[in-house]
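S., here's the first fold you wanted:
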Amino acid sequence: MSGMGNIFDLMKNAKEMMEKAKTAQADLAKQSCEGSAGAGMVTATVNGLGELIGLKYEPGVIDPNDPDMLADLTIAAVADARKKVGALRADAMREMAGGVDLSSLGIDLGGMM
């Protein structure tokens, strides 16, 4: 019967971990990070789930003769914001795992969050 007890413990722990992941995901959705490019000429806001929720352009950055520069700055600002969100997600996963940095063990819980 001890084998069955281990299975039940494993199932209970998995359920608790999924509940923690759902809570962490809901908390992340409420947070946001800003990234910028071009000395602040372009600012992107990304929520904790990695979704782009805002873009802000300073008037001088919009040059109709150089749309590629605006596109490049936008991409860079979004990447900067997503990098910051990545740090938030890593902190949330570390907290969910009881302070253990699972990524150093090669474990990625990103799909759970």
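And the second, which I think is the more interesting of the pair:
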Amino acid sequence: MMKKMFASLLAALMIASLTACGGGNGSSPSGSAPEPASPSAPANSASPSSQPAAPEPAGSEVVMPSYPDAASVDLAKVDAEIKELAPKVKTITEGKLILGTSADYAPYEFHILDNGVDKIVGFDVSLAQAIADELGVELEIRDIPFDSILMEINAGSVDVGIAGFTPTPARLEAVDMSHLYELQSQSLLIRKADLEKYKDVSDFGAGTNVGAQTGSIQEELALASTPNAAHTSIQTIPSLVMDLKGEKVDAVVMETAVAEGYVQAQDDLAILCEVPYDSNGKGVVVKKGNEDLLNFVNAVVTKVVVNGDMAKFIEEANALSDQSIS
């Protein structure tokens, strides 16, 4: 399954240029990254790039994934499609679906202690479990740095990447992405003590420092929306929040859903404002050209979005998220 060395280097270079869990439509009905407004309650938002997307090659057209339209979906036909597609899917390890995620992004994916046992939960994990269940295989979760997930996908180490990934033209040149399963908005998280000091994004100029997760859409958004500020990129969201509380950074660009969780759990933090952003939402990542798996995932995403399961996954994750953040 491994690419030849030259191809691997090309993939790594391509993916490095994407340097969140990360974006969706700027409106916020719901919820990580690492850039998708989503259809959940507290998740009015959102894995896991600092460089602008490269121009598309002449003659090529990147089709951005869309959110399933419930009015046009026949769930009986979707179920039949899932049953038809399942036998065609070949996973890296027979009998398993290997998920690559970065479990530091509540409510998307995060660690909790369940009866003393470390467990990775979140609505991205619930979605992965639904895909594995429909496929009739075991789900194996690999918790890896957000900015390594796409490389692991292209190296053939994991079957799917689900970590709040927002589709962008640059990402879609490197990997394939499913229909959107969640929508979101972006916000600036600050110290509550600074609410009188700052009014909006434009206040973060020279002399301020804005943080974001390495390899995320938020990192790219921080650079674009606060061009005169200093910028700090860190691999994990909890580390960014520690830097914010320790006054090493003045604000963190974060999925609204994730920011809301921190504000709910820590009374010295506050959301200053939303950061204007036009994006598509969150999708499941699969290796470029793996059409059988992509088609299967698309069918499962359509099912869980339309039948309401995805909204339940988000609601359950939001209810658990304070166990991680606290």
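Why I say that: The mean pLDDT is 84. The chain has ten helices and 13 strands.

Talk tomorrow,
H.
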